[in-house]
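Work Package 3 committed the consortium to producing structural models of liganded targets before the mid-term review. Because experimental data for this complex are still outstanding, the team generated a predictive model from sequence and the ligand definition alone, so that downstream docking and mutagenesis planning could proceed in parallel. The input record is reproduced below exactly as it was submitted to the modelling pipeline, together with the SMILES string for zinc ion.
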Amino acid sequence: MFKFIYKTGERLRNPSLSNWFYFLKESETWSLASLEAYQLKKLKELITVAYSKTVYYKNIFDLSGLKPADIQSLEDLKKLPIITKNELLSFNKEIHTNLKFNKLFQANTSGTSGESLKFNREESADSFNRASIYRGYSWYQVNPWERNGYFWGYNFSRIAVLKIRMLDGLQNRFRIFNYRKESIDFFIKKLKNAKFLHGYSSMIYETAKIINTHNLEKPLNLKMVKGTSEKVFEAYQEEIQKAFGQRIISEYGAAETGIIAFECKSGNMHLNMEGVIVEEIDQEIVVTNLQMQAFPIIRYKLGDYIKLAPNTKTCECGMQHLIIEEVTGRIGQAVYGKNNTYPSLYFYYIFKNLALKQGLLLTYQVVQEVKGKLTFLIEQPLDNKQLTHLENEIEVYFKNDMEFSIEYSQNLTPNNKKLKSFISNIV
Ligand SMILES: [Zn+2]
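The resulting structure, written out as tokens with the ligand in place, is given here.
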């Protein structure tokens, strides 16, 4: 019954989805060379469209004395400049192509930081993106119409909640709206029959903790637990494993870029190479979206720190798609010392070192209210020895340029919002 509703909806909204899905199931067995050949073919198409159908890219090419024919290899992509969200916002109209599409959807990036971006995405690109997600599901034998629990934090009005419940119902989906006791009890009852869970990893983690602490009935039918759009702390895994019988896996993407990577059963995040070209430049990700022609996105600095695995790294699952070793975190705001500024990536190093050297897995949030001072909020309790280890690591990175305090045993439950690992109130 839900399969029927799903299939009908898909045919109406995303007629090309099933073709894309078959294509992706086929290309998942391709060699790296074939994948790169496909990328080059799509890149050339994209460049031609961008040059001949948009005002923005035409200007970019002309100003740098380039012609589409100058892009003959994936390496040649580097001849083009990098763009940022600022350009997508300021030249929004000029970046849209004047191509006619049968069907367009309006995409919206939720502006957690800064302005929200609106753009058109053609049906084909939208369907490709959904098919990419469903290919990831297929690795876990999950079908999109199966019963699923969804964790997504927003503050909804009463009417919005009703509407969402209805839409969720059609999609065989249920979700948690807040952390009040009765909501949690209700949600956990429903979990029993769920086949997969997905959404904010911090909320999945919170729910896992509640199940473990109160010794509640554990869902036994789960095939996949997937975190999106937030950093999955290694410290989450133990509780999640205990409550849901498996690790939480990661899906990485953004509205502008589509799905960038999806974690396979062997624990590696494979790049969605049929959809994106990913470059790592100074530890930052730069993405080209190969499938979207309504709003071409070429060499876009998404704003995350990442680390790509060497091209020679292989995966037990057999797929040759390149691997992203780590999505280290949002670049976000600078950290201010008394004299110098630092990247927020430093926090990642500090806690990574603690995990590697001391086996200490911590969930953290760092807050800066004034320059030269930081507050480290740690969820776990810390003994004196652990506290000293943390202090030492902080000093390695900030030397004498930063005062700091550490508060442990803190409740880091995000209040229906994304959990940010660094909050700066300096303007
Ligand atoms: Zn793999």
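Reviewers should note the following from the model. The first strand starts at residue 104 and ends at 108. These observations will guide the Year 2 experiments.
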